[in-house]
From TrEMBL:
Keywords from the UniProt entry: DNA-binding, Transcription, Transcription regulation
Transmembrane annotation, as ranges: none
InterPro entries cross-referenced by the UniProt entry: LysR_HTH_N, LysR_subst-bd, WH-like_DNA-bd_sf, WH_DNA-bd_sf
Similarity comment: Belongs to the LysR transcriptional regulatory family.
Annotated ranges, domain HTH lysR-type: 1-56
Keyword Transcription regulation: yes
Pfam annotation, one family: HTH_1
Gene Ontology CC annotations of this record: protein-DNA complex
GO molecular-function term, one example from the UniProt record: DNA-binding transcription factor activity
Organism in which the protein naturally occurs: Saccharopolyspora terrae
Coiled coil ranges: none
Protein name: LysR family transcriptional regulator
């Protein structure tokens, strides 16, 4: 019995709707349905009525235990996180892909120079860890994209860049100086694992431009830039990114083509909401200051 499934059951019961629960949990609706089915198989009895969606008598009993178990798990995480953060002078900085382009190494270097007493550790994050590493206290701050919409985190915008599509050099549009959204929406895109948070999948697949429709998916999964590039080079799927991606990941057999009419997107530094740790506050202050100072010169803001 997984805690994640218990959480899903409670959210479905609160929302009274599988689709709304999926949106709240940043999961596919099919995943939410499967979580409930697995719990019902585990306990050998229906836990939810489907029409209307509400807890059965057995579901009500399980819900009471589920709330207690989840509360205990939260206390355990907080207790362990407190012990971990008690390690003197350590700041764990998550970095998804190339972070906020050239600003990421510049910020890390400046912080180490300004605070040599603090052990700054860079922690690579994959696409599925958009905010989870931060919320699970595996990192203290994180460079990610796009900006998460989540009341549990605070967001500092560091770069604003135009979008590109990453494709095989053999594909017809690879030689175009730029393309439009209409040119790329029908491409087969890389597959992302189901556990990938919805804000990131919407960003990568240009979901807003699709009117919410799912993209065509290629043949390979990817959770990091190297897997995206390997898939694109083989002609088995396209990816998308911010323009600075091309400067950090030259890869034989691929092309990065600007998408002229796609909305510009942010890379951001995220931290836990209400985190008053002086190391975190110092890092955020330095990061936002360097972004204002260096961003325009690095082509990381609109002209």
């Amino acid at each position: 019995m997984e805690l994640r499934r218990l959480e899903t059951l409670l959210v479905v019961a609160e929302e009274g709707h599988f689709g709304r629960a999926a949106e709240r949990l940043f999961l596919a609706k099919a995943t939410v349905t499967e979580h409930v089915k697995q719990l019902e198989q585990d306990f050998g009895t229906p836990l939810l009525d489907r029409n209307p969606v509400r807890l059965t008598p057995a579901g009500h009993r399980l819900a009471r235990h589920a709330r207690a178990l989840l509360a205990a798990a939260d206390l355990a995480r907080a207790d362990v996180a407190e012990a971990a953060s008690a390690e003197p002078g350590t700041l764990r900085v998550g970095v998804m892909g190339h972070g906020s382009a050239e600003l990421t190494p510049a910020i890390a270097h400046a912080f180490r120079m300004a605070h040599p007493e603090i052990d700054l550790r860079l922690v690579p994050l994959d696409f599925t860890e958009h905010v989870s590493a931060l919320l699970e206290h595996r990192v203290d701050v994180a460079f990610v994209r796009p900006a998460p919409v989540d009341e549990r985190v605070e967001v500092d915008v560091l770069t604003t860049e135009r979008r590109i599509v990453v494709v095989s050099a053999r594909w017809e549009l690879a030689d175009a100086p730029e393309v439009r959204l209409a040119d790329v929406l029908d491409l087969p895109f890389i597959r992302l694992p189901e556990r990938t948070p919805r804000p990131f999948t919407d960003y990568l697949y240009f979901t807003a431009a699709r009117g919410g429709e799912a993209p065509r998916r290629g043949q390979d999964d990817a959770v990091n830039p190297h897997e995206v590039l390997a898939t694109a080079a083989a002609g088995r799927g396209a990816g998308s990114a911010l323009e600075s991606f091309e400067r950090f990941y030259p890869w034989p057999g691929t092309r990065c083509v600007p998408v002229a009419d796609a909305p510009w997107e942010h890379s951001v530094l995220v931290s836990r909401a209400g985190d008053e740790d002086p190391q975190v506050r110092a890092f955020r202050t330095l990061a936002t200051g360097l972004a204002r100072e260096l961003g325009p010169g690095l082509r990381l803001t609109p002209a």
